[in-house]
Structure formats: C-alpha cells, structure tokens
Write a structure and sequence with these properties.
There is one protein chain. Helix content is about 90%, strand content about 0%. It has 4 helices and no strands. The protein is elongated.
C-alpha cells in the first residue's frame, strides 16, 4: 500500500511541476471525450486508452531521467545532453504515434459528419 502512495505522490509531482504532462493529460481527456461522443467501439476506445498510457508513461520516464541527470551532472555535459535529447525523442515518437492513432480513428468519423 505504501508503494501506491508513492506512485500517487509521483503523479501529483508530475501534474504540479511538468507543464507538458498536463498538456498530455488534457489531450487525453479530449481524445477520450471525442471517442465517446463519436461512439467508438470498445476495441477502438481500448486503443485510445493504451495510446494515452504510452504517452504518459514515456513522458514520466523522460521526466525521471531528466531529474536524475540534473542530480548527477548539474553542469552541461555532452553525454547528459545526449541522454536527455534521446529521452525527449522517445516522447516525441509516442506523441506522433498518438496523433496517428487519433487521425486514423477520428478522421473517417469526423469526415462523415460533414
């Protein structure tokens, strides 16, 4: 039960200190709301939820890595910069995948409304 509390503390820290995480959560709410409004099926909603989870997990790992890098090397170091850049790239890849999933799932339905 203690580890659950630590996890909630970490989530609160992300929401309080990481503007990008908040943006991802807001986008997730919009995606879920749109999926429900467009009456996506259970598998399509599951795909949206898994995609949201992927982005939030990768953003969380990116933040943890950046925090650790800042502790280990407060000054700019080429390898620390490389680690941070690669971690940020992972978030970019996950976010691009999420946008692709959204276009594939929402696009045809939204075009059908026109």
């Amino acid at each position: 039960m203690r580890s659950f509390g630590f996890a909630l503390e970490g989530l609160a820290t992300l929401l309080r200190t990481q503007p990008n995480f908040v943006v991802h959560v807001a986008a997730a709410c919009v995606a879920l709301g749109l999926g429900i409004a467009l009456r996506l099926g259970p598998l399509e909603l599951a795909l949206i939820i898994l995609t949201i989870a992927l982005v939030l997990v990768v953003e969380s790992i990116n933040t943890a890595l950046e925090t650790l890098c800042d502790l280990v090397s407060p000054r700019v170091h080429p390898l620390i910069k490389q680690a941070k850049d690669i971690s940020a790239a992972a978030v970019l890849i996950a976010a691009a995948a999420a946008v692709t999933v959204a276009v594939l799932l929402f696009g045809p339905r939204l075009l059908g409304l026109l």
